[in-house]
Amino acid sequence: MTAFRMPAEWSEHEGCLMAWPVREDLWGSVLDDVKEEYANVARAIAEFEPVTMVAPPGHGEEARSRCGREITVVELAQDDSWFRDSAPLFVLDGDGNRAGVDFRFNAWGRKHSPYDSDDRVSGLLLEHLGVERIPSDMILEGGAITVDGEGTLITTEQCLLHPNRNPGMNRDEIEAELKSQLGVSKVVWLPYGGLLDTETDGHVDGVCAFAAPGTVVVSLPDDPGHPDYARMRANRAVLESTRDARGRRLEIIDVPQTAFVEMPDGAVEVSYLNYYVANGGVVVPVAGVPQDEAALAVIASAYPGRKVVPVQAIAIAFGGGGVHCITQQVPAARPSAA
Questions:
Q1: From 16, 67, 208, 325, active-site residue
Q2: Is 100 helix (H, G, I), strand (E, B) or coil?
Q3: Is 325 known to be catalytic?
Q4: In the predicted structure, residue 198 carries a pLDDT above the cut 50
């Protein structure tokens, strides 16, 4: 059997996949705003690499009009617009040949319905791209994991062990499937995702991300009144005592800034950690608040040599995510050394 591994997000990309938002029961009054934010994210990423926007049948022209000519639009059936979670997770073999792991998707524990088209869209994308499909019966969203490309994967117990995902699998079985399908040899379990992240049950991409082999960026709110103040320090303690798959201690870069924005239905938190690493750049969600600048500087320090681009993502945060949640990188086949 061919051995595949999931490359790190900073490896060379062939492009980026996104999905056009149309779900009125989710977005409600911010639907028009979120379409503009999705288009802005797409255009920001397109400065670094090609972007393909997948729109439901009948919505392609709107996506083309809003996104502009530099974005490729493809019409495929879908329910929602969170491609980090419903698109395939791409893997490479030792020769750089590419495949896509098609995990099952159940709308974050059946929080939205219908979700059958989103469960199928991964396979449709792989067929459209001409990429080998590797099926898995386990439910997994891409936002629930971060990998270093060298054998280490970080996730949260809060999400992956939630009974609304894989009630028939225990922790050891989930870990074994991650290792088998994504080519990792060590899984680091953080206890917590964000307390306010009720939509995804605590995806890791709101609290921690690999920035380089042996280096992680973590959310560490400096306000003792923040609901994750103690929880993120518990996460950091795990990372401090962890060695990666190659035996290295982890260098930890803290992001102490947080951003809350008032909206008609209450405050939403824009997660600075929920960024997208592109070829030569990092596209970071911001909220238009004073803390943005300091958070961008911290993230820039974690990715030397890459241009950091802020994009407002308040409406996206209202829907439960950020820039990372709405994107999925397609690694280059036979990539050059990163």
A1: 325
A2: strand
A3: yes
A4: yes
